[in-house]
Amino acid sequence: MQFVQAFTTMVLAVATMTTGCREKKVDQESAPSTGGGSVVGEKILLGHIGSMTGDNATFGQSTDNGIRLAMDEQNKKGGIKGKQLDLRTLDDQGKPEEAAVAATRLITQDRVSIVLGEVASSRSLAIAPIADSNRVPMISNASTNPRVTKDGAKTRPYVFRVCFIDPFQGTVMAKFARETLKVSKVAVLRDVGNDYSVGLAQFFSAKFHDLGGEIASDQSFKAGDQDFKAQLTAIKAKNPEAIYVPGYYTEVALIGRQARELGMKQALLGGDGWDSEKLYEIAKGALDGGYFSNHYAPEDPSPVIREFVRKYEATYKSVPDAMAVLGYDAANVGFNAMQRAPDLSSSAIRDAIEQTKGFQGVSGIITIDADHNAVKSAVVMKVQNNEPKYAATISP
Ligand code: PHE
Fold it and tell me: Nearest C-alpha to atom 6 of ligand 1 is from which residue?
């Protein structure tokens, strides 16, 4: 059902680009009545850009589920400033170029009040300058590369996120590997076309090295690759105790399987990009004994998490992953800011997001820092019997 809505939007977007007559119709449907760009008719329009299809489709779908859950709850409470909320989701198919096209469309044609997403840092990096230069607030739920919110020395005034960033996430796994797993020699296998993967590999390696560990082999691949045997053979020759693979679930799962086919027994370690039910479907147990850092553990006994998991399962019949939680949190941080803002202009919403302090999210307490990031704990999950199991919480 959620998917169908996104798909319909996508079809309309395609129709808009290809046929002049459809364009008019779409324009009329979404034209703001005020010209202010924030409020369409009696509704506040939210935009979500996500990978609803493609190799990381669960990222977009889970985020969309989380956002819709938050929106439905807010609408039941009467909306915001007496207005109901509506959501337009555009599928970027997992491509940064498409994410940029979607951002321009949502901002200049649909005139959304706020842009939610993306999950993948490379796609948020494509959206962020567009949101920022058009002065429309953007809240990424899950992009962890530092450059999303801060370009060089300059923080992007309109761009925020509700998750931690990769210098922290890389440190978490480097410390866990060195101090808890007592590993002293690792290999690193990164996706060179993915800003998140490249950054996280770097942050992990620097910290692991600082802690006295050795990076015995540093290998790379590209998203979409199917065969990782050359890199794995090179790694095998160095005999590391673990392999750090900061990639997304499709490639990570294949890497795990091929490592086992080559007779390699080392634990694979990784980051939040592993988080998808598809990881286990594709890996079929090959990642057992591995660990990855993440934003939340579904079995966490805290009442806030129990309540969210219950609601999510009742609505979507599946256990929420980290993107679902962060999609929900990103939307709620946006709603909370809209409620506190004196009016619904972009600048008022922006100022209010910037002032977010101590907001109780499902993924933790969210305070937006000077660089527009949220400082939060990470969890380490262990893969056991082809399932993720909570292993540790690491605080900043
Ligand atoms: N942090 C990843 C990135 O920046 C995206 C991600 C977040 C993937 C959470 C899975 C879960 O690209």
Answer: 273
At 337, which helix (H) or strand (E)?
helix 322-340
Ligand 1 centroid to residue 154 C-alpha, Å? 23
Burial (CB < 10 A; 0-12, 13-18, 19+), residue 224, is: exposed
Does residue 144's CB lie within 6 angstroms of at least one atom of ligand 1? yes
Q: Which two tokens stand for residue 154?
A: 């300059």
* 143 Cβ inside 6 Å of ligand 1: yes
CB 311 within 8 A of CB 367: no
C-beta of 296 in contact with ligand 1 (< 6 A):
no
| Shared-domain flag, residues 89 and 178 | no
Q: Which two tokens stand for residue 30?
A: 């979404």
Contact 183, 268 (CB under 8 A): no
- Pair (34, 57) in one structural domain: yes
C-beta 168 within 6 A of ligand 1? no
217 and 239 fall within a common domain: yes
Assess whether 148 and 181 both reside in one domain.
Answer: no
Please give the distance, rounded to the nearest whole angstrom, from the Cα atom of residue 78 to the centre of ligand 1. 32
Helix axis angle for 96-104 and 121-133, nearest 10°, is 30
Is residue 382 in some structural domain? no
Q: Are residues 16 and 160 in the same domain?
A: yes
CA 282–ligand 1 middle distance (angstroms):
19
Residue nearest to ligand 1 atom 11, measured at CA: 272
pLDDT in tens, the chain (396 residues): 333 344 334 433 433 333 333 233 323 333 333 333 455 568 999 999 999 999 899 999 999 999 999 999 999 999 999 999 999 999 999 999 999 999 999 999 999 999 999 999 999 999 999 999 999 999 999 999 999 999 888 999 999 999 999 999 999 999 999 999 999 999 999 999 999 999 999 999 999 999 999 999 999 999 999 999 999 999 999 999 999 999 999 999 999 999 999 999 999 999 999 999 999 999 999 999 999 999 999 999 999 999 999 999 999 999 999 999 999 999 999 999 999 999 999 999 999 999 999 999 999 999 999 999 999 999 999 999 999 999 999 999
Looking at the fold, whether 33 and 133 belong to one and the same domain comes out as yes
